[in-house]
Amino acid sequence: MNSKNLAPRNLVYIKLVSVLLGLFFVQLASAALPIQKIPLSSGAQLYFVETRGIPMVNIGIDFPGGSVHDAKGKIGVSDFTADLMNKGSRIRGSLQDEAKIVDRISDLGAAVSFQSGSELTTVRIKTLSKTEILDQVIDHVSDILAFPLFDGKVLAREKTLEISALKDSETKPETILAKQFKKMIYRDHPLANMSTTESILRITGEDLRQFHQKFYRPGSMKILIVGDVSQEKAIAIANRLIANLPKGTINLPELPKLEPLAPASSSQREVRIANPAQQAHIQMGITAIPRNSPDYFPLLVGNYVLGGGGFVSRLMNEVREKRGLAYSVYSYLNPGKSSGFFSAAMQTKKDQAEESVQLLRKTIQEYVENGPTPEELVAAKSNLINGFPLRIDSNSKLLDNISSIAWHELPLNTLDEWTNQVNQVTQRDIQIALKKYLDMDRMVTVVVGGQ
Predict the structure, then answer these.
(1) Does pLDDT of 97 surpass 60?
(2) Which contiguous run of DSSP H or E holds residue 301?
(3) Same domain, 159 and 281
(4) Stretch 313-317: mean pLDDT, rounded?
(5) What's the start-to-end Cα distance of the chain, in Å?
(6) Are 250 and 66 in contact (CB under 8 A)?
(7) Same-domain status, 95 and 188
(8) Residue 421 phi, psi (nearest 5)
(9) pTM of the predicted structure, to 2 decimals
(10) Which domain, by its residues, includes 138?
(11) How far apart, in whole angstroms, are the C-alpha atoms of residue 110 and residue 20?
(12) DSSP string covering 321-338, please?
């Protein structure tokens, strides 16, 4: 069948899918979500959820291959490897450039993306489940995965674009803030790795080929499939996707342990950076917990009261409602595989920066000392539990949750037990966790702008 003729028919399917989405995911969110974990002969692990309500399939591939594994002096290799994966490949024996790959994926009504982060490289595929379409998408992506070209001209173009974007971002206060905060939280740990103009200029096509050969291996991959296929079909899809990749598992060097921030004087844990921006950008935070920590749910519920609950949070009440210092202020918990961090952030007028920093610290400190009120705890748990269906109300959201379960090695019934775990959190649990992790004498602060 001519692929060009598939596009109009695919649009009909997609419109039908959008009509069915609402009703289906309301039912799905309230139902049990049996996640099947299936070992494959290649060493890869398949995580599969069968959802028959809509004729679509979402597929993910996750594996260790982020910037923590980039060589010193060449930070950015993992990013460029992922970026160039679908910008030139040998597909079904013939060379295809970026335009042909994009056209082919588009004609099939699918979406394919590659992305590298600090620890993981992720592949995401979204396609209709109709066999004649699905099989073509899988064959296409299988070749993209295994036979990237890493064309020198394309790499040179992407490096130029990245350097330009990097230079532009270095003038933006939000980027300056994020980089400085990351540096203070992670210090000399590989999680602090950030590309520079110098490191990007050193990267060659051979670096990308070596990175691909080393890290793109089935034995270290988690393959995630959610959608309108049987278990047998899901296993076949997973095997076909990785069939042509180099065999074996990555022999990763063990990453150093991220040590908690040590107590320090106020001047040692605060950085203030001049900037001509009209507002001061403020962020403070501290190293926290991995996702599999038993303190995760107490901190999740506790943070909802502090700054994660939007307009009903303590920080919003103190900073915005009572004093009008900011339009938005929030806090969040970012748990990782082996560690993580807590952070609170806001923007305010330059001449109010110092007042805002002190108010943030005071509000957090008082909350750590006293914890939530019984009324705040009831409201937080109710909002989190009632909002849980929105966390899994699409195939893509469900896939992201399964990705987290696989990467953090959580129990397969994590989603089934999530609301129970929230409901079991007590006021004492929160107070113990807050005092254990949110030590103001170890919390770092960055202010970009201000006096």
Answers:
(1) yes
(2) helix 296-303
(3) no
(4) 97
(5) 66
(6) no
(7) yes
(8) -65, -40
(9) 0.90
(10) 3-241
(11) 18
(12) ITT---S-EEEEEEEBSS
Q: Can you tell me which residue has the tokens 């849980």?
A: 388
Residue 26: other Cβ atoms inside 10 A: 12
pLDDT of residue 26: 40
307 with 350, same domain? yes
- Judged against a pLDDT cut of 50, whether residue 78 lies above it is answered with yes
Q: HEC states along 393-447? A: CCHHHHHHHHHHHHHCCCCCCHHHHHHHHHHCCCHHHHHHHHHHHCCCCCCEEEE
Within a domain: residue 185? yes
The pLDDT-based confidence of 13 (bands split at 50, 70, 90) is very low
Do residues 108 and 184 both lie within one domain?
Answer: yes
What single DSSP character describes residue 3?
Answer: G
Domain count, the chain: 2
pLDDT tens string 104-148: 999 999 999 999 999 999 999 999 999 999 999 999 999 999 999
Residues 294 and 204 in one domain: no
The answer to whether residue 71 is domain-embedded is yes
C-alpha span between 383 and 102 (Å, rounded) = 41
Q: Are the C-beta atoms of residues 385 and 422 closer than 8 Å to each other?
A: yes
Q: Which of 220, 241, 262 is the last residue before a domain boundary?
A: 241
DSSP for 335-346, please give it: EBSS-EEEEEEE
258 inside domain: no
**Token pair in block for residue 22:** 């609402």
- Sheet of strand 56-64, all strands in order from the earlier edge strand to the far edge: 36-39, 45-50, 222-227, 56-64, 120-128, 111-116
CB 141 within 8 A of CB 78: no
Greatest alpha-carbon span in the chain: 70
Going by C-alpha positions, the residue among 440, 419, 340 that lies closest to residue 32 is: 419
Polymer length in residues for the chain? 451
Residue 282 maps to which CATH number? Answer: 3.30.830.10
Residue 1 above 50 pLDDT? no
Q: Which residues pair with 225 in a beta bridge?
A: 48, 59
423 domain residue, yes or no? yes
